[in-house]
Q: What sequence folds into this?
């Protein structure tokens, strides 16, 4: 199987979420797909199952306008104003797609932590998760980078969170939406070199041949329609 490394694209929050979902649902080949992407405006996204009232309570005061969008994946509220965002799609039939969610999460984050270490960042995967003081167990926090969860990427000494992700499975495969919080790194990275190294590490981890690949020809009306859906009040306030 091949790993298609797609070109970077910048878009608003709704279009970014729609594009990630179409990479899972409509991709024309059986291949792993990876993309890093940017944001046209400051943005926050939040997990599919989260209540909108809870989400709004986690957001900063609206002194600066920002996009807000419900993701197709789970997880907490993610601040994209200073992150490095990527999506990875594992098609049905790949061994990683068949693993339990915790193991696919761990495997991809171990590849990410290894790449960060290659670039001088102290990073490991969190191997244990202590329940919070409220006794509610180790579930998703409000703002994603405020607390590390099991198999997130963290600093080994402080366990300050560096990277987290959210996942969605359907009959086409697994969508993994990941985010690195750049202020947590403690140093500047050459992000182009980092991306190239991360894709190479993923290729070895997934036993795929990684290669730069042009964007597939999605139906423009389908992308537009899904973007409109993700931008709608009905979608954002679904729960």
A:
């Amino acid at each position: 199987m091949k790993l298609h490394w797609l070109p970077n694209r910048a878009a608003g929050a709704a279009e970014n979420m729609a594009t990630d979902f179409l990479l899972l649902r409509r991709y024309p080949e059986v291949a792993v797909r990876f993309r890093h992407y940017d944001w046209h405006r400051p943005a926050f996204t939040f997990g599919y199952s989260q209540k909108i009232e809870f989400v709004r309570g986690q957001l900063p005061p609206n002194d600066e306008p920002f996009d807000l969008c419900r993701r197709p994946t789970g997880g907490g509220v993610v601040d994209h104003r200073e992150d490095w965002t990527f999506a990875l799609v594992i098609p049905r039939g790949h061994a990683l797609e068949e693993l339990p969610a915790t193991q696919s999460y761990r495997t991809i984050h171990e590849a990410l932590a290894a790449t960060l270490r290659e670039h001088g960042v102290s990073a490991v995967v969190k191997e244990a998760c202590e329940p919070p003081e409220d006794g509610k167990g180790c579930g998703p926090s409000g703002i994603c980078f405020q607390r590390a969860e099991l198999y997130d990427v963290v600093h080994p000494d402080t366990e300050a969170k560096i990277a987290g992700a959210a996942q969605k499975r359907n009959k086409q495969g697994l969508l993994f939406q990941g985010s690195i919080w750049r202020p947590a790194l403690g140093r500047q990275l050459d992000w182009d070199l980092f991306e190239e190294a991360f894709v190479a590490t993923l290729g070895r981890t997934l036993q795929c041949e990684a290669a730069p690949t042009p964007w597939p020809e999605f139906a423009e009306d389908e992308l537009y329609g899904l973007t409109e859906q993700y931008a709608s009040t009905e979608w954002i306030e679904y729960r």
User: Anything to note?
Assistant: The longest helix spans residues 101-118. Residues 2-236 form a domain with the BirA Bifunctional Protein; domain 2 fold (CATH 3.30.930.10). DSSP finds six helices and twelve strands in the chain. The mean pLDDT is 92.
